[in-house]
Amino acid sequence: MPLDPSISRRRFLGTGATAGAVVLAAGGTAAARPTPRRVDVVVVGAGFAGLTAARALVRAGKSVVVLEARGRVGGRVWNHPLGGGVISERGGTFVGPTQNRLLALAKSLGVDTFKVYDEGENIYIAPDGRRFRYSDTGPTGTAPPDPRILVELAVLAGKLDTMARTVPVDAPWRTPGAADYDAQTLKSFVDANSATDAFRRIAPLATRPIFGAEPGELSLLFTLFYIAASGDERHPGTFERNFDTRDGAQESRFHGGSQEIAFRMANRLGRRVHLNRPVRRIDQDRSGVRVHADGLTVRARRAIIAIPPALAGRIDYHPLLPFQRDQLTQRYGQGTLTKVAAVYPTPFWRANGMTGQGLSATGLMSATFDDSPPGGRPGVLFGFVGGDQARLYATLSATEKRRRILDQFAEFFGDAARRPTAFFETAWSGERWTRGCPVGIPALGALTAYGPYLRAPQGRLHWAGTETSTYWNGYMDGAVRSGERAAAEVRAALH
Question: What contacts 24+ positions apart, CB below 8 Å, involve 480-483?
Fold first, then answer.
């Protein structure tokens, strides 16, 4: 359904008013005479986690300031307007079953969902270049039903799901055998449990778009936790729910784009949200915290740091945090992911019986999706370029990048894919205040050595962000959950 125009106007007016206030403070007289502000809670980061935490605290009657380094709200969720009210997404896009906290938040804000186009057949390009068309209504779901790997796929996916059920989502480091799992990579596990090179070569089809990483960069323990986290308190996580479109994490999208949720939260928070305010230093003592951002210092009783561990580790803390927390952030790098998209007058692939979803074991893009608006015009395809392929992509010229991506879209969906009306990319690893996407990835051994410090408050500092979530870690739902949990911690501490 279309957005209420009055809501859209309020959204832009509210965001513009906040941005305007920031510009004045950063470049006008206020910058010359920064006056400390006193509030109950200061939140660092205006992504889904920080905005959710701030919203909950304001509702509880607490005074709050949100400091955001970027010139926008939403964090790793970022709309890309195509004109005429049509929105594509540069970052977080999908929502699916058991992502209940995100769905509840969207509903409370009046943001509706619609199903991802999933009528027809998907495309799979095998390691040897062979091309398959298949329906995701079959027993393998979104995974390709290649007869050469089918048995191994079923056995290994079942084994991972079984192992994941032993992982406590709130403390994966307490998993039986955690040290052994955390000392080996997903690649070594796949290699030891598969018989064919063809199967080993398809493992990156899952890890590149989901983690922005190669199987050899992921600890087996973290992978098992990620599977276990793909559910909720009533539904155990499964590999299929994480990977699938139909009945899975890629099932639906939001009207107006995912960032609409952040816009509406920020609108309600109003001038509590300060953009273009990167936080450089945080002091804490018995009386409270003092948070120093560019052009603004805020005093508060508590602080919530709602940014990825890799970025949280770059803030200067006084006194120093425990070395375990610092060591954790040093070992929690961001995934390597670029999102590419092409726009067409119509979604031509649909007329040929294709969903727009593709998987490739040979191309730069490991996975593609139909990102067209509900009305079907224009047609939009996007793809994930992750891990080694993202690192290769970054070395190419702009002309070569475009050519290779469009050639791959054409390999999937036909020659018309070579003639888009627009093409754009988002290289998340190059974004200054993100440094990678979609999720932070612990190094081998990091979860067992330092995992307890991921969420544990340090004095008056509390941690949020999707990396700290017990369910749907790495997803928008996980960010919302983490914000709710951090706000509850702070409310309890302030009583």
Answer: 480/48, 480/49, 480/52, 480/101, 480/102, 480/105, 481/101, 482/49, 482/52, 482/306, 483/48, 483/49, 483/50, 483/51, 483/52, 483/53, 483/54, 483/55, 483/56, 483/304, 483/306
**Considering only 43-57, 192-206, 343-357, 462-476, which range has the smallest mean pLDDT?**
192-206
Burial class, 30, CB count within 10 angstroms (exposed 0-12 / middle 13-18 / buried 19+):
middle
Whether the per-residue pLDDT at 145 is higher than 50: the answer is: yes
Whole-structure pTM value: 0.93
